[in-house]
Structure formats: C-alpha cells, structure tokens
C-alpha cells in the first residue's frame, strides 16, 4: 500500500491529515495514541459557530497535548526523517484524507471534504473516542 514518493506528495506529510473517529480509534489500538494531539475546528455558520474537538496526528513536540493554531510550526510526528514519507501509510493506518491527497491535491481539497471529517467528530462516536483518548492521556482539563 505504498503511496507516491514525489516531492510534492512527501511535502504534504509535513501537515498532519485529519482522521475520522474510527481511524483515530484504530491508531490508538495500534499503539499510536500517544502520538496524537487534540485539535479543534469550527463547525456551523459565522452567526452560530460550534467548536468541535478532534484528534489528529500530532505536530512534532505536541504529542499527547492540546494544540493551539500558533503551535503548528513543526512537521507531523509520523513524517519519517530520512524519506519524508508518512510512517502510517505502509501500515494501512494513514487517515483517508492523506491517502486520497496526491500530488499537492491536499492543499486544494474541498472544504466540504474536510468539514465532513469534522462532522464525524461532532457525534456520539467522536465524543466516545475523545473520552477514551483523554482517559489514557489525561489531556482534556
């Protein structure tokens, strides 16, 4: 299940891709829960926004923490230093957002596709995954 190794594709692994709650649960089951971070995004309209929490592969140095937008300076914790490829890809654990992004498409990904992932976190399943992660890593205060 190897992905493209062109420079554009490898550079996309600098920014973590968002998993669905099911994908995050699979990452935790595979022992990668400590390398996730708590992130948040706004859902809804400008007049009536709702903040939604989600788990994401962490930026290096933010593993197991809540991240603020200003802390996004480092590459994804799963980007391998020598090859610059995602270590999750060949394990079949790379989030679908990253798997589907090829040749720079991720930066042009539709807002609808990204918001569909956020909406999955705004469910009972999403909240349950967050609670499971919190119970183990004690991040949410």
Key phrases:
5 helices; 32% helix; globular; alpha+beta; 13% strand; 141 residues
Helix content: 25-40%
SS class: alpha+beta
Over the alpha carbons, how many angstroms does the gyration radius reach? 15 Å
Shape: globular
With helices defined by DSSP (H or I, 4 residues minimum), what is the helix count? 5
Could you explain how this protein is built, in words?
The chain has 141 residues and is an alpha+beta fold. It has one domain (7-137). Helices cover 32% and strands 13% of the residues. The protein is built from 5 helices and 2 strands. A two-stranded antiparallel sheet has the order 1-2. A hairpin with a 4-residue loop joins strand 1 and strand 2 (49-57). Helix 2 runs parallel beside helix 5. The longest helix is centred in the last third of the chain and has 14 residues, at 124-137. The chain is globular. The termini are far apart. The mean pLDDT is 82.
Would you spell out the secondary-structure blueprint of this structure?
Blueprint: H1 7-12, H2 21-29, E1 36-44, E2 49-57, H3 96-100, H4 111-121, H5 124-137
Antiparallel strand pairs: 1-2
Helix pairs in contact: 2-5
Task: Write a brief structural summary.
Helix content is 32%, strand content 13%. With 141 residues, it is of the alpha+beta class. It has one domain.
